[in-house]
C-alpha cells in the first residue's frame, strides 16, 4: 500500500514535511523548521544551543521523530531514530525551495539519504553557507535538479517542476506511485514575475489522484486588490522620491530578483543601497551584481558612516534587524531630515513575530515612518480555488495554513484535513495509525 504521512505544516504556516511511502521506499517532500511564533518553545528570546539544534527540538516534540532520517551526530547517543530504515537509497528528500521553513533541517539528514533541490536553490543555499549564514549542521551533499527532471526512488518516480515564489529555485513535485500521482505545490503564487511556471505545475498535475497544497492565505484577511511586484517597485520608487532624508530598508535578501530591481531603482533615484557585511557577501556570491547590471553591491564597511550622516539623501541603508540599537548611529530622528523605513517582506516578517513589536517601537521612538510595501509570495484564496478547478485532483490535503477548512474544493473532490503522524491512502482515508 502507498501511504502519505504529514510530519509538519499542520495548523501552522511553515514547517512542511510530507512523507510518501511505497513498498518500503520513502520520499520526503520538504524538511522545514517551524517559524517560531505563538507558543513555540523556541520563539525569541530563546536561542538554540550550538550542536543541540535538532536533539533539543526532538526532546520537546517540535521536530519530527521520523525513524532512520537523521544522522547520529545530531541525535542524542543511543537514539532509536539513528537506526537506518531499509537499505541505503530507500529514502530520499526533495526540498521545494530555500526558505528555512522548508529546508531548515536538511543539514541533519543522514549521509546515505539523498537530498535533492532545484539547482538554483542549491546555488543560493551554497552562497549562504559560504558567508556564514547557512543551515544548522552544514549543507547535505546536494543532488541538483533541473526543471522537469525525474528521479527514481524504488518503484516511485519524482518529477521536479519549477514554480513561481519569492526566491530562486522554487519547485513543486509530482510523485508517481503504484497508487497514482501525488502533486505537491511547495510554496506557490500566480501573481509574481513568473506565473507561467506555476500554471505549468497546474497543467502537469491535472487530474492527479492527490494534491498537497500550501494554503497560507486561507487564514488571512485578503480584502482589497492583490498586490504584485509592479506595485512593490512603484511604492519603493515613490519612497525614494518623497523621503528628504535617509531611507531604511527591510528586504529579504533571498529574493534576488527584488533585490536586483531595488538596486536599479535606487540608482535611478541617485541613491546607493548599503547592506550589512554578511548580506553583501551573500549577494555577491549569489550573482546579484550581474543580475542588477552593476559592478558591485556595497557593504556597511565600504561606506564610512560619516558619509551617510553627511548626505543621508544619497543612501538607502538595510540595517541588521537583530541590532536595533545600530539605528542610533544613523542620521534618523531629531535633527535630521525626515526618513522612512520601507518594509518589503523583510525581517522581522510581521506582527506574528516576537521581533515585530520592538522593531516598530524603535521606529516610533526615532520618529521614522514605517511603510509596508511588500506583496505576498503565496497564492491568494481565489488563485488557490482556481488552481483546484484546473487540476481536478481526486483528493486535496491543504497544509501550511492556519485555516485548512477554508479551502473549498469543487463537487466530486474530497478535502482531507490531515493529522500529525497518521498515514493516509490515496483516497484521503486513514490507512495507518500513529
Quick recap:
Pfam families: Lactamase_B_2, RMMBL. With 434 residues, the chain is of the alpha/beta class. Helix content is 24%, strand content 22%.
Task: Give your account of this protein's structure.
With 434 residues, the protein is an alpha/beta fold. It folds into two domains: 2-220 and 377-432, 4-Layer Sandwich (Metallo-beta-lactamase, Chain A); 229-372, 3-Layer(aba) Sandwich (Rossmann fold). The chain is 24% helix and 22% strand. It contains eleven helices and 21 strands. The protein has helices at residues 53-60, 100-103, 119-130, 195-204, 229-242, 256-268, 277-285, 288-292, 305-310, 356-366, 381-391; strands spanning 2-8, 17-22, 25-29, 91-94, 114-118, 142-145, 150-153, 156-162, 171-177, 180-184, 210-214, 247-251, 272-275, 298-299, 315-317, 340-344, 369-372, 395-399, 414-415, 423-424, 430-432. The strands form three sheets. It has an eight-stranded mixed beta sheet. Strands 7-8-9-10-11-18-19 form a seven-stranded mixed beta sheet. The chain has a six-stranded parallel beta sheet with strand order 14-13-15-12-16-17, sandwiched between helices. β16, α10 (356-366) and β17 (369-372) form a beta-alpha-beta unit. The longest helix is centred in the middle third of the chain and has 14 residues, at 229-242. The mean pLDDT is 94.
Amino acid at each position: 500500500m502507498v501511504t502519505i504521512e504529514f510530519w509538519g505544516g499542520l495548523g501552522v504556516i511553515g514547517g512542511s514535511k510530507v512523507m510518501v511511502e511505497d513498498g518500503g521506499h520513502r520520499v520526503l517532500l520538504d524538511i522545514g523548521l517551524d517559524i517560531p511564533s505563538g507558543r513555540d518553545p523556541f520563539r525569541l528570546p530563546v536561542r538554540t544551543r550550538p550542536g543541540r539544534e535538532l536533539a533539543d527540538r526532538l526532546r520537546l516534540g517540535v521536530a519530527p521523530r521520523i525513524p532512520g532520517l537523521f544522522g547520529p551526530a545530531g541525535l542524542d547517543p543511543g537514539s532509536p531514530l539513528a537506526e537506518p530504515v531499509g537499505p541505503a537509497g530507500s529514502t530520499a528528500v526533495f526540498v521545494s525551495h530555500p526558505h528555512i521553513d522548508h529546508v531548515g533541517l536538511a543539514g541533519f539528514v543522514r549521509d546515505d539519504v539523498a537530498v535533492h533541490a532545484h539547482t538554483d536553490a542549491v546555488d543560493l543555499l551554497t552562497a549562504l553557507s559560504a558567508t556564514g549564514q547557512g543551515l544548522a549542521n552544514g549543507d547535505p551533499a546536494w543532488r541538483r535538479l533541473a526543471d522537469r527532471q525525474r528521479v527514481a526512488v524504488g518503484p516511485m518516480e519524482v518529477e521536479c517542476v519549477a514554480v513561481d515564489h519569492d526566491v530562486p529555485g522554487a519547485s513543486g513535485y509530482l510523485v508517481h506511485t503504484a497508487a497514482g500521482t501525488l502533486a505537491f505545490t511547495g510554496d506557490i503564487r500566480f501573481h509574481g514575475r513568473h506565473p507561467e511556471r506555476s500554471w505549468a505545475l497546474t497543467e502537469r498535475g491535472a487530474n492527479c489522484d492527490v494534491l498537497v497544497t500550501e494554503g497560507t492565505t486561507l487564514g488571512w484577511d485578503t480584502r482589497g486588490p492583490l498586490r504584485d511586484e509592479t506595485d512593490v517597485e512603484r511604492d519603493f520608487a515613490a519612497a525614494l522620491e518623497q523621503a528628504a532624508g535617509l531611507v531604511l530598508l527591510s528586504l529579504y535578501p533571498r529574493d534576488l530578483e527584488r533585490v536586483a530591481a531595488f538596486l536599479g531603482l535606487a540608482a535611478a533615484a541617485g541613491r546607493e543601497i548599503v547592506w550589512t557585511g554578511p548580506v553583501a557577501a551573500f549577494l555577491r556570491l549569489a550573482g546579484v551584481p550581474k543580475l542588477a547590471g552593476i559592478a558591485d553591491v556595497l557593504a556597511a564597511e565600504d561606506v564610512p558612516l560619516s558619509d551617510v550622516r553627511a548626505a543621508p539623501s544619497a543612501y538607502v541603508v538595510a540595517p541588521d534587524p537583530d541590532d536595533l540599537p545600530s539605528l542610533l548611529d544613523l542620521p534618523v530622528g531629531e535633527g535630521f531630515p525626515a526618513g522612512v523605513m520601507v518594509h518589503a517582506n523583510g525581517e522581522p516578517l510581521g506582527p506574528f513575530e516576537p521581533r515585530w513589536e520592538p522593531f516598530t517601537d524603535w521606529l516610533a521612538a526615532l520618529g521614522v515612518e514605517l511603510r509596508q510595501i511588500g506583496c505576498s509570495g503565496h497564492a491568494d484564496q481565489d488563485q488557490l480555488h482556481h488552481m483546484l478547478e484546473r487540476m481536478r485532483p481526486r483528493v486535496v490535503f491543504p497544509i501550511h495554513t492556519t485555516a485548512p477548512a477554508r479551502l473549498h474544493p469543487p463537487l466530486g473532490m474530497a478535502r482531507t484535513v490531515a493529522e500529525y503522524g497518521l498515514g493516509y491512502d490515496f483516497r484521503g482515508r486513514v490507512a495507518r495509525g500513529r
